[in-house]
Amino acid sequence: MKKFFLGLLFIFTSFTSSAGLITHNGYTLNEDTNVISGKGMEWLQWDVTFLTSIDVALSLYGADGWKLASNQQMSELFNSFGLASHNLWDADENTSQFLTSPFERGEDITIDPELQFLSLFGFTRGLTEGWWDLQKETSAIFGNDLDADGLYNIASVTDDYELAPFMRQKTNSVSLRSDVFTNKQYGGFGIALVRTTSVPEPTTLAIFALGMLGLASRKFNKRIL
Ligand SMILES: [Ca+2]
Ligand SMILES: [Ca+2]
Ligand SMILES: [Ca+2]
Ligand SMILES: [Ca+2]
Question: Which of 6, 42, 101, 112 is the most exposed place for a label (fewest CB within 10 A)?
Fold first, then answer.
């Protein structure tokens, strides 16, 4: 019986300590699966589909329930992070939106919406080595094509940075650009894929395991009495 409890305890701890989790603004990245969950949806990290077209990404991941993110979903995502100090990103596929916010010295991820976004969705462009404030960008193709012109949009988030060699200070720049790519074209971007949350989350499993433990110990106690 002791072995049984130890087994359950082992299962319980392996669920709770399974993966590196990063959470910002109600969105949590699981670093093992490259999946970000939040607000009832899952997003695949944008660097996972880097340099693919919409068609190629859907042929690779469509079977797992992934779909192209809609304009509505993208504007909700941008609004929940307040990117470029703005939370009125438009969901109309034909509105091109480009906003900047001033350079700020230092990289404080606890308050910086672009850095938070980048840490979840992964870099699709940028520098990884250097002592200065490095350029970091994440971009992905998305959209509904409700106007049936065969064109899709690009979402892009770049944190403020210093441009070597003269260290010119560049702003945070965030954009939703309309009518850029077809479903067959690709460039230096990922594909924004989403799906509805279907897999039980670790916390649910942990609660379930605890419940089983409770039931088992009650039975065990009864047997002793
Ligand atoms: Ca259009
Ligand atoms: Ca369109
Ligand atoms: Ca920033
Ligand atoms: Ca920066």
Answer: 6
User: How many domains is the chain built from?
Assistant: 2
Ligand 3 geometric centre to CA of 40 (Å): 26
Separation between Cα atoms, residue 160 and residue 100, nearest integer Å: 9
Distances (CA, A) of 197 to 112, 132, 164: 27, 39, 42
163 & 94 share domain: yes
**Using an 8 Å Cβ cutoff, are 28 and 37 in contact?**
yes
CA of 92 to the centre of ligand 2 (A): 10
Q: Give the Å distance between the CA of 122 and the centre of ligand 4.
A: 15
For residue range 152-196, list pLDDT tens digits in order. Answer: 999 999 999 999 899 999 999 999 999 999 999 999 999 999 999
Ligand in nearest proximity to the CA of 84: 3
Spacing, Cα 71 to ligand 1 middle (Å): 12
The model's pTM is 0.80
